[in-house]
Amino acid sequence: MNITLHVWRQKDANDPGAMEVYTAKDVSADSSFLEMLDMVNEDLAQKGIDPIHFDHDCREGICGMCSLVINGVPHGPQAATTACQLHMRSFKDGDAIYIEPFRARAFPVLKDTIVDRTAFDRIMQAGGFISVNTGGAPDANAIPIPKTAADKAMDAAACIGCGACVAACKNGSAMLFVGAKVTQFANLPQGQSEKAARAKAMVAQMDLEGFGNCSNYSECEAVCPKEIKVEVIARMNREFLGATVKSSS
Amino acid sequence: MSSTPTTSPAQSPSSATFISASIGKKVLMAFSGIVALSFVVGHMLGNLQIFLGQERLNAYGESLQSLGAGLWVIRISLLLFFALHIWMGVKLKAENLKARPVRYKFNETVKASISSRTMIWSGTTILAFFVYHILHFTARTTDPRFLQLPLDMAGNYDIYSMIILGFENPVNAAVYIIAVGLLCTHISHGIYSMFQSLGLTSPSCNKTLHRFAHAVALILFLGFSAVPVGVITGALKLPKNPPSNNHLQSAQSLEPISIESGGES
Predict the structure, then answer these.
(1) Is B7 part of a structural domain of the chain?
(2) What's the whole-model pTM score?
(3) Distance in Å, alpha carbon of B167 to nearest chain A alpha carbon
(4) Less Cβ crowding at N or C end of chain B, within 10 Å?
């Protein structure tokens, strides 16, 4: 199939950037979206044109490096799928595909479609951890955890921190990401001792980074490749409110 | 790379940080929204008494007026909550626009409902209508006929006739129904948002909550629209034989007079 690509090209963080048009010829329907871009890049390199820069790593849908907005949707049209796991069979011959970087003030564009997502790292540093003493690893079953709590924690822990939620949110809000991290720890016994401080510190860092507020659009939930639900945001709100009441009493 | 400072979990947050925090603002939005919604529900129940007749509706108005200073306490409290709701709404919207300065060339929406995406616009329109509505029925400055309506023995206004006269004009009725429609789209997203912002949703009750929000919005729309529709269709009419001498007595007169005719619905 032949595809027309409209790609965001931006030399560096200070360049205003613009959309450029390229053609991908003889693309196999079985190739992945990133393989298609690899082919286009080989062609561009042969012509002496700077290849399209895009983030990728595992190409297995688990690392969270993909950061492409395909036809206005982070990770593209297929639900619960990262851009690297998207295949060209999702498109038709002759299609025009728009490829843009994640858009949010807290995710500045570094080059082409690559954005700086270290804001997420700083949110994690603020409270996305548990403090444990060093020493021998304890027995795995020493701390009893109810199945329902373990399931909820695991559902939230499925978050790969890709940032698609921020990119999809019309407010550039990071609440699904932060909600997932807060929920993951709040459901486990290991997360209890730092629960209140974690909720407040992670929310404070999120606000400091310049992410927007949640308007409950649920766009984040719709594009999340790991199907994190907006209820994690409710859990974060609950934890934050509880922590505020606790600290003021 | 950015050098944004990192907060520490050991930091002791105060109530000031709560209000300035994203979630704090959403909680204030939710609380003021609950107050505004309670008022809207009460207002609709009050309005619907028009179908019970002129006397009943006017007596209801009288009972509110009889609260005296209490009525002003309620009015001012409501206005303060509305002001808080508007202030938070504008502040959140301004921050949200700042957080997403560059739009996508290919703009797509996967799930967000129209009502959720138009909250600021439905809210602004409701505010404009609210001002007009107060001038129309509370301050009585937009329709000179209201000042010609007779007062009852206690000097109370004939709310029943004001409503009929107000909605006899199809433009007034249409504007009212459109405004109420926007209010209800605002509420349909607002109710769900309230629960979510206060952390009161869970995967098991989320669908029910969405249905509940839509049902409340629909009931409110039907309840509010029933009055102008009733007037336009003729189901609600002015009293057939209003005492002619009452027309000589205007609302601006010092001596109140009685309404002799009963309500007709």
Answers:
(1) no
(2) 0.91
(3) 36
(4) N
Q: Residue B52 is part of a domain; what is its CATH number?
A: 1.20.1300.10
What number of residues does chain A have? Answer: 249
- The model's pLDDT over A42-61, given as tens digits with 9 standing for 90+, comes to 999 999 999 999 999 999 99
- State how far the Cα of B206 lies from the Cα of B193, in Å rounded to an integer: 11
Residues in chain B: 265
**Per-residue confidence (pLDDT) for residue B16, from 0 to 100:** 59
> Using CA atoms, how far apart are residues B189 and B234, in angstroms rounded to an integer?
34
Pairing mode, strands A96-101 and A3-9:
parallel
Residues whose CB falls within 8 Å of the CB of residue B52, separated by 6 or more in sequence, listed in order? B263, B265
Q: Between chain A and chain B, how many beta carbons pairs sit less than 8 Å apart?
A: 187
What distance in Å separates residue A39's CA from the closest CA in chain B? 23
Dist. CA B157–CA A238, nearest whole Å: 47
> Which three-class secondary structure string do you get for A155-175?
HHHCCCCCCHHHHHCCCCECH
The per-residue pLDDT for range B186-240, each reduced to its tens digit, is: 999 999 999 999 999 998 899 999 999 999 999 999 999 999 999 999 999 998 7
State the complex-level ipTM. 0.95
Q: Which residues of A touch B25 (CB under 8 A)?
A: 213
**Fold topology of A3-111:** Ubiquitin-like (UB roll) (3.10.20)
